[in-house]
Structures are given as structure tokens and as C-alpha cells.
From TrEMBL, chain A:
Residues 1-54 form the UPF0033 domain. It comes from the Bacteria. NCBIfam families: selenium_YedF (TIGR03527). Signal peptide: none annotated. This is Selenium metabolism protein. InterPro entries: DsrEFH-like, Se_metab_YedF, Sulphur_relay_DsrE/F-like, TusA-like, TusA-like_sf. It holds the Pfam family DsrE.
Automatic annotation (TrEMBL), chain B:
It comes from Acetobacterium bakii. Residues 3-64 form the Putative Se/S carrier protein-like domain. It holds the Pfam family Se_S_carrier. It comes from the Bacteria. InterPro entries: Se/S_carrier-like. This is Putative Se/S carrier protein-like domain-containing protein.
Length: 203, 86
């Protein structure tokens, strides 16, 4: 089965692919026209226990989703080994951090810029790390343009934090090519991260 | 681990100095260590390799030396030992 979503904006390709997964379709192909959609589909496949084969370039990609039933999703409760891994993860850092602007707090933006830099410095040096950090709206300016925050995010990323950056927001601000750390994501994946976490912190 | 921090008499001096020093050295700002002050302050952090660049930047900044203090920080197994240098 082939789903042609060329010309459709994020997150339509992910939504359409996820529908096939929910319908237990073990093998299908998604046609998309941009690299960001390919990255988002890869993430979806990984989360859902599918493997990916893709080919194409520039503006024409073919992404094959394959589930040979050996790839059991990490959140499958029937998989005891995966379950115990997740459980450990839940105890250690089952929270996500949402950043919707490029400063910390309301008030003076210069002070807010200093505070957000110090926040990420402190977070990167600590032991209670979030499972994921989500950047949307003006928050996407941090992993693209704020040199100090980028350095701290790289430390966090190396320590295991996943960093998701809203692709639509990057496009809106013209920053898509300037992402320095993390991966381009979409509302669908970001909402999933929020829903899965036991604690959700927004600054 | 050895690094340096500069603390300031007020927040405005810290922010202005940070902007100035960024053009001279690889620095970042951090909360003032609890071992130095219980208050909520802004400090500048840099590694030993950047020492001379930071000093050059400070000398061209024109900030009154009374407005800041330079510390050498030794961190060993979570224990932080600050030594004031100015």
C-alpha cells in the first residue's frame, strides 16, 4: 500500500502513517517531498517498532515502513526486558521540559536571556535530567541562535536527553537551516512526548 | 576540575560584562555558586585556557575592579572549593 502525501504539510505525513500502524498494516510506503518529513517518519517508525527503508532525494522520497514482528515497540508491556528498562527510566527522569520562548520569565528580555542561559547551565550540571526537551514557537531560537544555550543543550543531549524542535516553528522564523542541536520534530511527536511523561514542566 | 568564575556586585554589571567578554573569550554565565554567596546572582564561568583572553577583555571593559571578584574553583568529587584571586 502506498500513501502519497507529497505537498502535504507537517504533521499530515506522520498522521497518515500512524493511521496505517494503528490499522496493523505491517508494510506500507509513504511518499513525501521533504527531508523533514522523512526524519519525522523515521522517529514514528522507531517509536512504533517498525524499521524503515527509504530512498530518494531533494523533493521526492519513498519511505517504506516494515514491521517483521521482531521489532516490538519499547512501550509494549508484554516485553518484560523493555518494560524494565522503561521502568528504570521512569524513576530516573520521567519528565519533559517544554520551552515556548527564548527567555525565562516575563519582564526585561535582557535579564530573561541571562536567566535562560543560567537555567540550562544549571540543568546540564545536575543529576535530575528530563527525558526530553521540547522547543516550540520562540523557544526554537535557543537551539539555533543562542551559543551558550546550544553548548548546554549539547551536554544534555550527550547525557541522554532527547531534544525535539518544532519544524513548523523553525520554518516560520526562517531558522530551519540553523539548527545546532536536537532534531526537527512536529506537533504529533511533541504531543506524544507530553502525554507519555509523568511530569510536564514549562518555563 | 579547575575553572574560574567572576562574581559581580550587581546584576547589571554581570550582564554588561558578559556581553563584552563574549567577543574576547569562550565564556558562559551561570548562577553564583552557593559556596560563594547565598543570594541569587549571575556569575561568569570560564576554563583555564581562556584565562588570558578574559583578562584582556576585562582590562578593556573599564569596569571598576571593586564591582567584581575573580575566583579559582576546584571541584573534586562534587566538593567545590572557591579561592578568591582579587
Amino acid at each position: 500500500m502506498t500513501i502519497d502525501v507529497r505537498g502535504k504539510n507537517c504533521p499530515i505525513p506522520v498522521i497518515m502513517a500512524n493511521k496505517e500502524i494503528e490499522n496493523n498494516n505491517l508494510s506500507f510506503t509513504v511518499l513525501v517531498d521533504n527531508a523533514i518529513a522523512v526524519e519525522n517518519l523515521k522517529k514514528l517508525a522507531k517509536n512504533k517498532g517498525y524499521r524503515i527503508e527509504f530512498n530518494g532525494s531533494a523533493s521526492d522520497y519513498s519511505v517504506n515502513f516494515i514491521n517483521d514482528k521482531n521489532n516490538i515497540p519499547e512501550n509494549n508491556p508484554d516485553n518484560s526486558q523493555a518494560g524494565s528498562t522503561i521502568k528504570t527510566s521512569l524513576i530516573l527522569n520521567d519528565w519533559v521540559l517544554f520551552i515556548g520562548k527564548d527567555v525565562l520569565g516575563e519582564g526585561d528580555p535582557i535579564l530573561g536571556d541571562s536567566l535562560i542561559k543560567m537555567y540550562f547551565y544549571t540543568l546540564s550540571q545536575g543529576n535530575d535530567l528530563p527525558k526530553a526537551i521540547l522547543f516550540m514557537n520562540g523557544g526554537v531560537k535557543l537551539p539555533t541562535s543562542n551559543i551558550q544555550v546550544i553548548d548546554h543543550l549539547k551536554v544534555l543531549n550527550n547525557r541522554g536527553c532527547e531534544i525535539f524542535v518544532c519544524g513548523a516553528c523553525l520554518d516560520f522564523y526562517g531558522l530551519t537551516d540553523q539548527l545546532q542541536v536536537g532534531s526537527i520534530s512536529n506537533m504529533y511527536a511533541i504531543t506524544e512526548e507530553i502525554n507519555k511523561a509523568s511530569k510536564f514542566v514549562t518555563l | 576540575m579547575i575553572y574560574y568564575v567572576i562574581t559581580f556586585a550587581n546584576t547589571h554589571s554581570a550582564i554588561m560584562t558578559q556581553s563584552h567578554l563574549e567577543t574576547y573569550a569562550n565564556i558562559c554565565i551561570m548562577p553564583t555558586l552557593r559556596e560563594i554567596s547565598a543570594g541569587c546572582g549571575i556569575s561568569i564561568h570560564f576554563l583555564p585556557d581562556e584565562y588570558h583572553n578574559v583578562m584582556t577583555g576585562l582590562n578593556t571593559h573599564g569596569l571598576d575592579a571593586k564591582m567584581y571578584t575573580l575566583y579559582k574553583i576546584s571541584e573534586d568529587d562534587g566538593k567545590i572549593s572557591p579561592t578568591p584571586l582579587s
